[in-house]
Amino acid sequence: MTSLHPNDVASVKDIHPDNLPGKYIPGLERFASKHHVGNFVVVRETREQFFESMPIYARLGMHLLFCGKLESALVKTKIVEDQLREQSIKEGVVFDSLASVASIPSFIETYSLEIGELLVQDIKAGYKKLKHGVRPVQNADNPRTFCSAADCRLTVFENITDACKFWVKGRQFTFPELLAPSAGVETHLDVPHVSVFENASLAIFRLAPADYHRFHSPADVIVGDVVDVEGQYYTVNPQAVNEPGFDVFTANRRSILYLTHELTGRPIAFVAIGALLVGSIHFTVKKGDKVKKGEELGYFAYGGSTVITVFPERMIKFDGDLVEASKKPIETLMKVWDMLCHRS
Question: Would the CA dihedral through 75, 81, 86, 92 be positive or negative?
Answer without folding.
Answer: positive
